[in-house]
Amino acid sequence: MAPAPPPAGLLAGLALCLLAGCNQPPFRPLCPALVHYSPEEERAVARELHLHPDLKETPLFLLDYGNERHEIQKICS
Known about the structure:
By secondary structure, the chain is an all-alpha fold. It has helices spanning 8-19, 39-51, 58-76.
């Protein structure tokens, strides 16, 4: 009498274990496209901020935005 074949679940588990050792693809983060600002635009924003010293929070937001842009560039380059 011939031995019974192994259950399908056992074969699937064995195949999964063998495939688990395969190389993982390299990690590539999803990088959003950064908006390019011309020197003229940057000067215009600086001029507006200088003309409106009552804007207390806006410079903080712009600083944070600049930090985020720098981090994205570092991660995605």
